[in-house]
UniProtKB/TrEMBL annotation:
Keywords: Membrane, Symport, Transmembrane, Transmembrane helix, Transport. This is Major facilitator superfamily (MFS) profile domain-containing protein. Signal peptide: none annotated. GO terms for molecular function: myo-inositol:proton symporter activity. The chain crosses the membrane at residues 30-55, 67-87, 99-117, 123-145, 157-179, 185-207, 273-297, 317-337, 344-367, 452-478, 522-541. The lineage of its organism: Eukaryota, Viridiplantae, Streptophyta, Embryophyta, Tracheophyta. It comes from Acer negundo. One of its GO terms (cellular component) is plasma membrane.
Amino acid sequence: MVDGGIVKADKTEFTECFRTVWTTPYIAKLALAAGIGGLLFGYDTGVISGALLYIREDFEVVDKKTWMQETIVSMAVAGAIVGAGVGGWLNDRFGRKPSILLADVLFFIGAMVMAFAPAPWVIILGRIFVGFGVGMASMTAPLYISEASPARIRGSLVSMNALLITGGQFMSYLINLAFTKTPGTWRWMLGVAGLPAFIQFFLMLMLPESPRWLYKHNRVEEAEAILRKVYPEDEVGQEIENLKQSVENERAEEEFVGKDLTSKLKRAFGDRIFRRGLIAGITVQVAQQFVGINTVLYYSPTIVQFAGFASKSTAMALSLVTSGLNAVGSIVSMFFVDRYGRRRLMMISMVGLISCLVALTIVFSQASSHAPSISPLESRHFGTNSTCPAFQDAKDLGKWNCMSCVRSKCGFCAHAGNEYLPGACLADGKAIEGQCTGEHRIYFKNGCPSKFGFLAVVFLGLYIITYSPGMGSVPWIVNSEIYPLRYRGIGGGIAAVSNWSSNLLVSETFLTLTEALGSAGTFLLFAGFSSIGFIAIYFLVPETKGLSFEEVEKMLDKGFKPRLLKKKKNAKDVESNG
């Protein structure tokens, strides 16, 4: 049985999955109903990227304070950390079904709170509720699907749940784009999440509890009745026997390891194999976040605006491309991870990510140095009171360009005939912005007009393509294989918390970093982190492709050394023997 995360599935298994689902609609209903949790997970993590542009428009305090924008984005991640931790306990104590129902309630409450929020702090409260639901869904949906589906198609059904997460992110960008011209924009974007949560709640009421959970809690007849609906008559007897044996083995493990968390942790960290596996598991999870992926997913339209696309709808339309590539990459991963291996795929992915981040650094650096200059005449055209105070006080006016203006928290009003010609640097505010756009000019406040802007979008797309099949899904696969069976839940849980915590740190600091270092400096910093991640994966993470759990344990017990260190050791042995 699976404790969560991503389960591998090959092409043959997908074919068998479609055949089984077609002939047994009950399995399809069960997997689809639970899979809505993955869809909600993806939607609620992706929707904020576009909604934030319009929240800033409605609340001036959010527009003026970077930390407020970061908090609105990252509080869902903070809630997810708590939700994942509590979700594990709820799963064991009350069952998978009640946990999914509670996640739906939290999703729905969070969506409604955000949709009717009268102030930014209420949006933050709603994001925390949604985060609780996201964390619980990330733990519970794969677990429920894996325990309630036939063993021969379990991997493909759980992989489909992972695909629904990226599908939910793609759907969030589509819905964001659909509501750009609707009154209430961001309220609709955030409130729509309540609908699938509402649907899943009532679908789950009609579905049973996980047969494994029922059997473990001595509700044997209920468990066997569910298995008879899932398996053909000639297979059900064997599956009941397998379930019985599996639960008995789990109880024996609990007696050995201990039932309370303290005893489990003490025994786990006393095991050398577990410690080595945990180092590898945490390494790939932290590296996954410090390549900066969630800055792209959470702030994608904002980054596109940094590249010089002032229109919010244009920024979201271009962001839709990156989200679509993420979903495609998830599909590609399913077909290549067993062919090329986990370690190799991650390292190839890392090389591509570092290259794209360096390219983005160069693009944003060139965009900054070639930004249109500021014309004092153009600025005075709108009146002294409308001119940016920092520009008025500056002694080196000749060195000012659009980027200097934007970094001073002012707005750049482009030249009426050609946005690349010198323009005006104006104090930021809705009234002054209205003066600029009233003359059919484009107003820039997050980025500057740039002939390099399209290159930034191209490299963002390439960044996603190189991330998704490698560092996107493989770290979760590694964490499902790297731990001794009796400690898999503990190891996976600790590694998941390291992932969410790294996610929180990165998403909470991205905009602050862009203000302090500029877009080019921030992407260069992520390139540096990615380089460290590449080195750490090379030296600390072994290949688990094609190995049984027992073989992985033997490898970790012996100690993993990369080929480079093995060559050095062999050379020393030759010298000493010579």
